[in-house]
Amino acid sequence: MSEVTDLYAWLARSACQQYHANFVKHDITFDLLSDLDSDALRELGVLKVGDRIRLEIAIAELKLATLKKKVPLKEIREYIEKEQVPIKRVPTSEKALLSPGATTSRIVTFILPDGSLLKVNVEGCFSAQLIKKKVLKKLGVHDDDNEYDTFVHMNVSGDIKISSLYDVEFVTICFSPDRPEKHRIMLTPKNEAPTPTATAKSLRIVQRLSGKKPTNPSIRSFFGQRPPSELISSNLGEYFPTAGLHALETTIRNSVRHSMRVLRRFNSSSSVLNVLLGRPSITSEERWYRGVHQQRTIGDVLVHNVTMLDEAKISSDRSNRHSRIELMNVESENEDEDNLSEALDEFDFCGGKKWLQGARIGAGSFGTVYLGMNPMSGELMAVKQVPIPTGSSKQNEVHRSMISALQREMAILKELNHENIVLYYGLSSDANFLNIFLEYIPGGSVQLMLHLYGPFEEPLIRNFIRQVLVGLSYLHGVDIIHRDIKGANILIDIKGIAKISDFGISKKVNTTDEEKSNDTTGKQAKRASLQGLVYWMAPEVVKQTAYTKKADIWSVGCLVVEMFTGRHPFPSFSQMQAIFKIGTHTRPEVPKWCTIEGQDFLNKTFEFDYSKRPSAVELLADSFLAPLIVSDTDNEKRSAPVAL
């Protein structure tokens, strides 16, 4: 077949044989086809976009075929197979991280500057730029991919050092099936070193793979949840591995003295009251469980344990019942009590690191949460540690604005004091971190409980929702909108007390602000509408028309659906699809198996007109939250409210 015929046949395969004469006229031979581009085709008279696209695809296929002829792929493949070294057996600890499904996949784990992990499927991304673009897109960041570098810990001559990755090495690691580095790549803004939080996270992964004990381990779970204070008190060395023996002994001594002093004050005041009322004094067991302290310290636990031991032995000499605490010097108690009182009164969180750091509890979008302890009273705390950025990149500017917002919100929230709200003790900061001190809640979130145990029964849902609404009524009473009510932000302690947490995007408003938000949709309204996940958002928030206290009520309804089903509302939709559904007045699906009272309660919370939506106080009077009498009638369980 002649060259002209080859050219004609090639054009005919793309239904472009009408351009054959133009190609011949310009002396375009079959060998020159691979050099043509879009501009050249346009000059050859291929003006239709469809024809030009088909020819460009055919030219690309021609280039690939030519490349295969020039490169001996078969010989290269045989050479690689012959020279390939068998892969060593993966250690057990490494198998846990690199599961059989993950070793052959294209899932890469990135460590962000705040220490959080982001898993990205890099399938189809064959360059460093494309991989970074996909990571930034998943983060919702619109920066240029060239503004970010990648780092990884490497073993250099027996030492673990941080190495910057070149693009070729970065892509190689991402697509390697057995490189452990692909599960700990640190993503950092251009010309900046990895943050201490990201570095520590990467080192923990390296140490876990090598079988070494991490220097800052995560807190051991207690049946999948946060351990109670009693367990922590009896294992301080395990939960505070870096605190040091002297610091722990001093803290125990201070805490025991503090608890004994409070107990004596309670005994003296209760004795006077009992004499006046003519009542016998209550036992120490009752004293502790009637709430001498709402939050028990390390000293509370130790003193309580000794008291119970003495009462079990029916000791006649009760004056020596605290002698079993070896770290407590009873003779020096009185002389040191005044000094301890002054130290407790002067203790605050504004003077730097005046707290003992324990094991890591968890990590979030803002930073890492550690177990902490007040060295003066022995009170346990959850300390959220947020890294303070030092560079000048766009991401750091956004991070600084978030820290400023956190500081403003904490200034409001530290004044709150309610049983159903996680307490905020205060803030402190140093050169690298902002520390937020919160109440330590043993147990776990509603989301964690749903994951561990599955959907809740309705009586349990009623109990938890009643407590959530009590907490919300308190918040709304002081003009605070939470704006992020969901299962992950409702903590349940080991006594079944529900506590509202995570006020990172909450807002203090007043009646005037709410009236303005009803009429305007300015910048603030737009910013507010973007807070939290859309699955729990009210319609007026999605449409950016208003953001009032009633938005929290809609979220409570979504929380009820989450408890009934174990999944968020609109579970089969993406966030964008959920926005469309909510914006077009589509209610979350009400579970068919809930009672009539439950369905009626959800219909009230899912009222589209927020002005007609009931308040938290009004919902507390709803029959759904009334105590239940459960009976079996015709093999069906029915519930009826009790008139109180």
Automatic annotation (TrEMBL):
Its EC number is 2.7.11.25. Keywords: ATP-binding, Kinase, Nucleotide-binding, Serine/threonine-protein kinase, Transferase. Residues 2-65 form the SAM domain. Residues 355-625 form the Protein kinase domain. GO terms for cellular component: cytoplasm. It catalyses: L-seryl-[protein] + ATP = O-phospho-L-seryl-[protein] + ADP + H(+); L-threonyl-[protein] + ATP = O-phospho-L-threonyl-[protein] + ADP + H(+). SMART domains: Ras_bdg_2, S_TKc. CDD domains: SAM_Ste11_fungal. It is an enzyme of class 2 (transferase). ATP binds at K384. GO terms for molecular function: ATP binding; identical protein binding; MAP kinase kinase kinase activity; SAM domain binding. GO terms for biological process: cell integrity MAPK cascade; cellular hyperosmotic response; invasive growth in response to glucose limitation; osmosensory signaling pathway via Sho1 osmosensor; p38MAPK cascade; pheromone response MAPK cascade; pseudohyphal growth; signal transduction involved in filamentous growth. SUPFAM superfamilies: Protein kinase-like (PK-like), SAM/Pointed domain. It comes from the Eukaryota. Belongs to the protein kinase superfamily. STE Ser/Thr protein kinase family. MAP kinase kinase kinase subfamily. This is mitogen-activated protein kinase kinase kinase.
